[in-house]
Amino acid sequence: MFRRFLRSQKALTEANAGEMLQLDDTNVTSLIAVVRKDHAEQAVGEARYVTNSSGELAEAAVVIADEWQNLGLGTALFVDLLTEAKRAGLSKIIAYFDVENSSVIHLGRKFGFKLAPKEIRPDYSMLKAEITI
């Protein structure tokens, strides 16, 4: 789950959790996958986008709990997220992929994202990806 922040992170900080849970912003659209386990609901995945000020471009991200990865949940959430983005009138979505996360790179290619050359930073490497919708 901590690959969401494109850096090595052993725990989710309070600030990161707050950022992920801030959904009162009109520029944020978030879809959350929830399962019922032991009579309690548990979030196991999220797909979200945040639009720019013009409302035509958004940055998207998907995060899936480790035990739910490679089961199609990320694909299902992203299909729904793209559907919502189209309904909202967005024209382009960008995302940043960790170069070591082959699952998300595969998912991006599957959806037709164009990948820019790898950007190397001191603590991580990433790919910028974009798709016109």
Structure description:
This protein is α+β, with helices and mostly antiparallel strands. It has a single domain (2-132), classed as Gcn5-related N-acetyltransferase (GNAT) (Aminopeptidase). 25% of the residues lie in helices and 37% in strands. The chain is built from 3 helices and 7 strands. Strands 1, 2, 3, 4, 5, 6 and 7 form a 7-stranded mixed beta sheet that branches. A hairpin with a 4-residue loop joins strand 6 (119-120) and strand 7. The longest helix is centred in the middle third of the chain and has 15 residues, at 73-87. It is globular and about 45 Å long.
Query: What is the CA-CA span between the terminal residues?
Result: 27 Å
Percent in helix = 10-25%
User: What is the fold named in CATH at topology level?
Assistant: Aminopeptidase
What about the largest sheet? 7 strands, mixed
Query: Residue-averaged pLDDT, rounded?
Result: 84
CATH homologous superfamily (4th level) name: Gcn5-related N-acetyltransferase (GNAT)
The general outline is globular
Number of strands: 7
What is the H-and-E element order? HEEEHEHEEE
In short:
The chain contains three helices and seven strands, in the order αβββαβαβββ.
Describe the secondary-structure layout:
Blueprint: H1 14-21, E1 28-37, E2 40-51, E3 57-64, H2 73-87, E4 92-98, H3 102-111, E5 114-115, E6 119-120, E7 125-132
Parallel strand pairs: 3-4
Antiparallel strand pairs: 1-2, 2-3, 4-7, 5-7, 6-7
